[in-house]
Amino acid sequence: MPHLSRRSALLGLTAAFTVGRASLALADAPTERRFVVVILRGALDGLAAVVPYGDPALAGLRAQLAPPAPGQDGGMLDLGGFYGLHPSLANLHAMYRANEALMVHAIAGPYRVRSHFEAQDCLESGADHRMTSGWLNRAIQALPAKGGEPMAVGVAVPLLMRGPAAVANWAPHGNAALDADLYTRIAALSQPDPLLGPAVVDGLRERGFAAAVLDGTPAEPNRYAFPALAKAAGELLSAADGPRIAALEIGGWDTHSGQAQRLATVLRQLDAGLAALKTALGKAWGHTAVLAVTEFGRTVRMNGTNGTDHGTGSVAFVAGGAVAGGRVVADWPGLGPGKLFEDRDLQPTRDVRSVAKGLLAQHLGLSAAALESAFPNSADAAPTGRLINA
Amino acid sequence: MDLHVAHALVRFGLGRRGTEPLPADPRGWLAGQLNAPDPTTLAQPPSSAAGLAAIREDRQNKPEPGQSRGRALFRQDALAQLGNAIVTPAPFRERLVWFWTNHFTVSLRRPVCAALAGAFVEEAIRPHVTGRFEDMLLAVMRHPAMLLYLDNAFSIGPDSPAGERNKRGLNENLARECLELHTVSPAAGYTQADVTAFARVLTGWSVDFRGDPPGFRYRPFAHEPGEQAVMGRRFPAGEEGGIAVLHFLAAHPETHRFLATKLVRHFVADDPPEDAVRRVAAVLRDSHGDLGSAAKALIGLEAAWQPETKLRTPLDYVVATMRALEAPPPDRPYLIGVLGNLGQPMWMAPQPNGWPDRAADWATPEALLRRIDWAYGVAGSIGPHDPAEVAEATLGPLLRPATLEAMSRASSRRDAMTLLLTSPEYQRR
To answer: pLDDT (tens digit, 9 = 90+) per residue, A302-344?
Structure first.
């Protein structure tokens, strides 16, 4: 496990994490394979990230939300003639072209709630209800134990990795500052209080927040928190005696308004983070699989504030040197009349647990029994095949 | 939840603990806490004897910085008090303990107090919060923590045998603060001559580190001989003279008025309504300084049931949050550090007048941002709690629709919880 010196270097790095909503947790495992799960907290609009531009119904439903066609200026990056990747995901596209990344479309968990909290709980629990431990932790437990002391455990371990297996947490939680957007909402809620309202605004001003933030204009979140954490994760995972499993999370996907700009910003962070992870992993990238998932998708149609509301089907990304990439995995349900889930959302045709189970089986070698322990009662979600290079 | 119930939990208590049963009759619930014995049982009750022994050992065998026996006692005792506040079923009684502890401030600004502050609460304050003020005053003035904090332990009558031998003399600190901060207040119009005379009266009230057990000791050879006149009254020499002065001060109408003002400011409003002060002062007068009766009078004040006029201090805020989330009593000094970071380090008021008790004193911009940042940290580790359920359980009808709306729009449980913990209605009391 990492030694004090390396731990200290990372703690030094945490000084940079003063803004942003990203976190990192790590765990040891008896394998040379690296497995990274990225939770996209807040519900990614899968139709904007991986655009089914070949679907004839798309333009009529959300023309304003789709980037220009492939080949045009600022256009989407082609994924084989039917799907196009959002132009902010250039590094991911390069991985796709190198057969190191694939996209799984029309995916969702087993639940059909549109509550962030419940859906995130289900996503991390790996079940249709909240459990007290996360599926990744249960998967780690299914691997043979390896000696060594657990790394320092922080104050907040994501549910995804909570459970008996020792995990370390590098999240800047305890002393983390909030991102400007949350400060803005707090300032707005405090505003009616004659004492607290002005004092909170003064405090933010003293800390150097721009006037635009205080006026309630949505602020651009920190662009470096997630890439920095992803880089830190890659450095730790690459070490010979380092951890093997990492859970990262990045927020900012809840694009109810002004989606085009906000989504581009956060997609760029994700993209930069994946690139930083690959670079930091070095040769270990070849033994790595990364799974990026979100709790649910967003409405197919645009809402009244140039955004989208909570939906159902979305996408997942699988990347890494071990991944059998270069393709989009989907049983495309279509967007035409009668095809949408409840006439509003992308109809999911694949269970997100199928992808996770496929990766755990093919990449980490989990047995069928271990998969059942990680994802109880998930017989309907059979492992997706051929995700990892043989 | 009834508005009065919600208000009683916040205004007079330390916030609801989780989903503990709600009192049917809020006034009766509060009064019941005063009538029943204090339910507090500390696993390792502090004592001034143990504290003084630790101080003595630290002086004989100099410890490494931060490793002193006195600091260890402080951490243990501070955690015990915080843990008790977090779980107590009698939060109004506990609020009174913290109120009177602040009224009779001893502070770690004098490091010697580290080993004694917990014992001070348990020996001088807690036993008397529903008893007579005079008994509390006497217990405070004889407590080693106060005698050391305000220097009386080494005050020597100039004409006493010890004074003539050592060429040392008076220290007026405790006498002055007792008049100004603990009893009659400057409104009584006492003079410097009264302060000096009272200081002479108190000479010999000292601390014996070598006794068995170590503790308060009246030292006749340090006591100033002769009668003393304090505020127009003559008091005899000897230990009895000091007890008589305290008896006189405790029964003084200005003391009743001063205590009533502070109680009403703490439990009713930053600017105490005059009629409320008069009523509580009258109860103190008629009951001969019965603090339980004064506390019941507070419950009976109509003005005390106006919601959200006060602001939670950092201590209240932290304890209330731990209660709302049903946190177990802390087993690590983490919360002590939090209180320091939020601007109210445990038992470490800057001056003998204690922590301020007006909202504006706590609502400084940086202090509020630190609260927000801490709330975000807490919100990151709330486990299975549903923010909306916590909001309903802890605030009930005090929760504003705007806050609930903002929480429901939050994109994570953590953000929603942060919005609750930083909302004005949660920070107010």
So the answer is: 887 788 988 999 999 999 999 999 999 999 999 999 999 999 9
CB within 8 Å: A183 and B409: no
Total tally of structural domains belonging to chain A: 2
ipTM of the complex model? 0.91
Q: Tell me which residue range forms the domain holding A15.
A: 4-177+223-374
Residue A163: which CATH number?
3.40.720
**Same domain for A97 and A214:** no
* Cα–Cα distance, A390 to A380 (Å, whole number): 25
For residue A385, tell me if it sits in a domain.
Answer: no
Smallest Cα distance from A190 to chain B, Å: 6
Is residue A200, in this structure, part of any structural domain at all?
A: yes
- Counting residues of chain A whose pLDDT is more than 90, the rounded percentage is 53
pTM given for the model: 0.73
Least CB–CB distance from A199: residue in B364, B380, B416: B364
| Residues belonging to chain A with any Cβ–Cβ distance to chain B shorter than 8 Å | 21, 41-43, 116-117, 120, 130, 132, 155-156, 171, 173-178, 182-183, 185-186, 188-190, 192-193, 195-197, 199-200, 202-207, 251-254, 256
Q: Are A167 and A186 found together in one domain?
A: no
Rounded to a whole number of angstroms, the CA Rg of chain B reads 23
Same domain, A335 and A197: no
Cβ <8 Å between B413 and A190:
no
- Domain residue ranges of chain B, discontinuous segments joined by +: 150-250
Q: Is residue A379 part of a domain?
A: no
From chain A, pick out residues whose CB is under 8 angstroms from the CB of B361: none
> Å from B292 to nearest chain A CA?
33
Q: Which of B308, B325, B361, B369 to substitute to test the interface with A, most A CBs within 10 Å? A: B369
User: Does any domain span residue A116?
Assistant: yes
